[in-house]
Specification:
Elements (H helix, E strand, L loop, with lengths): L1 H4 L20 H12 L3 H9 L14 H7 L3 H9 L14 H8 L2 H9 L14 H7 L3 H9 L20 H8 L2 H9 L13 H8 L2 H9 L14 H8 L2 H9 L24 H8 L2 H9 L14 H8 L2 H9 L14 H7 L3 H9 L4
Length: about 375
Amino acid sequence: MRQSLVLASGLFLFGLSVVLAQDASPAAASTDQLLLEARTKAQVEDALAQGAHLEARDFQGLTALSLAARYGSLERAQVLVAHGANLEARDNARYTPLMWAASAGELEIVKLLASHGARLEATGKDGHTALYWAGEERHSEVVAELIRRGATIQRMDRMHLPFHNDWRALGVAAGEGNLEVVRLLLDHGMSTEVRDDDNTPLHCAAFSGKVGVAALLMERGAHLEPKNELLMTPLMVAADQGQVKMIRLLLDKGAKLDAHAGRCPSGENCSYEGATALMIAAGEGRVEAMRVLLQKGAAVEARDKRGWTALMEAADRGQMEVLQLLLEKGADVNARTRDGYTALYWAVLEKHPQAAELLKEHGAR
């Protein structure tokens, strides 16, 4: 719906083609045009006073109420509803005003329409309801409002019953730390494993360090080791972002400390293919995250697909604090990649003279 629903607001005043009854007069067409082009409450009231039809439509089949919902004009919507505008008017794609408001994240308009009896589970040509589009467009508060009013997750997507496996709402709420919405969605049957751009809700919570949400997800059965499109588990994502509290929580719940990132799909470039959480943290300079991982027993000499170690990752990026920490922990300064290169080689190649000097001081050659 992003392609069909999102239209630059600058187009609002242009290209309007009013659909009228065959016997409509030019005067009626003119007042209907005024209604569709109205941008304020006063303009709506004036057009209606001149006899504009509430059912007039633009070239996409949208009524004035659908346009108000689409572009977030609560005052216009209120006037139109008060004058008896059809809440179930369908445009060319069979979308209703409620679907437009939900997709646009217009919470107050959603409340207005729902409170006046708009059908929560009406579907467009694509089989999607307002709830589906609110979640797809990442409007978690609108999702919560619709569910509280009786919209059901099981019927939000007629094409993929009972659950759409790539619906974004739960992941968005998890990433925002919106515990109330996460709990509401789970209580109403949403799976903990739905994906938002291939991240599970636990990945999303791990990325932003939302420990309370992560704890709830795991309590409800969230898997600890799913891989996202970057081949990372939630623990790896937490390490990448330096989320120390999240790392502790995931490890306490049983996340695999030395799990390796997955194999990169053929033809694609994945920077951390086969890496561990420690290696990822090293590359990103997340020293405190590394301390936690090392305290828990992370393998200093773990290798990724290329044969790189955490020390090589740090040397390649000139991460001085990380290098010092790993050397203190006994990292092999002369370990070699599968191609025969050492950490010193990468430090010199990437022009990190301080890193190179530190490695030499510890016996690099």
